[in-house]
């Protein structure tokens, strides 16, 4: 394949999709102590980012069905990563909030993922890292369109 062919949007798109999926899988494999599924970890980070919320709001936020979110929340409660509390304004509602153990799990997982990526980036030349820095800006622009 010529260099010009490799840079057509269709060809480059396919190559980037495969590469980004592989890197993403490798990053997701770097987990904290609780060895959570990616869906469970996403719930923890959503609560961390947006604050306590009801399971229904959490299900909407994560784009999953409420019964699936209930199972996820219950598993996280059993692990001590989140706690259920009554809503301050409506006692019929349950609010899910992070525990200190849950916050620590997020920190450990992020630290392991950052360490893995830092190690891999350290194996590249400065020029290769600059290429990735440039690509990161472009990917961010693509993602925000």
UniProtKB/TrEMBL annotation:
PROSITE patterns, from UniProt?
Answer: HTH_MARR_1 (PS01117), HTH_MARR_2 (PS50995)
Q: Which domain of life is it from?
A: Bacteria
One GO term in the molecular function aspect is: DNA binding
Endpoints of the signal sequence: none
Q: Which InterPro entries match?
A: HTH-type_Bedaq_tolerance, HTH_MarR-typ, Tscrpt_reg_MarR-type_CS, WH-like_DNA-bd_sf, WH_DNA-bd_sf
Mind listing the UniProt keywords for this protein, alphabetically?
Answer: DNA-binding, Transcription, Transcription regulation
Mind telling me which SUPFAM superfamilies this protein's record contains?
A: Winged helix' DNA-binding domain
Q: Can you give the residue ranges of the HTH marR-type domain? A: 13-144
One Pfam family linked to the record? MarR
Would you tell me the protein name for this molecule? DNA-binding transcriptional regulator, MarR family
């Amino acid at each position: 394949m010529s260099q010009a062919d490799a840079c057509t949007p269709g060809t480059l798109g396919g190559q980037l999709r495969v590469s980004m999926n592989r890197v993403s899988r490798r990053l997701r494999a770097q987990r904290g102590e609780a060895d959570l599924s990616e869906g469970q970890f996403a719930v923890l980070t959503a609560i961390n980012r947006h604050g306590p919320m009801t399971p229904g709001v959490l299900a909407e936020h994560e784009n999953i069905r409420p019964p699936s979110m209930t199972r996820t929340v219950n598993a996280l409660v059993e692990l001590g990563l989140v706690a259920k509390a009554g809503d301050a304004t409506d006692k019929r509602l349950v609010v899910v909030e992070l525990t200190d153990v849950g916050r620590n799990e997020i920190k450990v997982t992020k630290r392991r993922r950052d360490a893995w990526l830092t190690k891999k980036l350290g194996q590249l030349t400065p020029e290769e890292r600059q290429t990735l820095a440039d690509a990161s800006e472009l990917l961010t622009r693509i993602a925000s369109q």
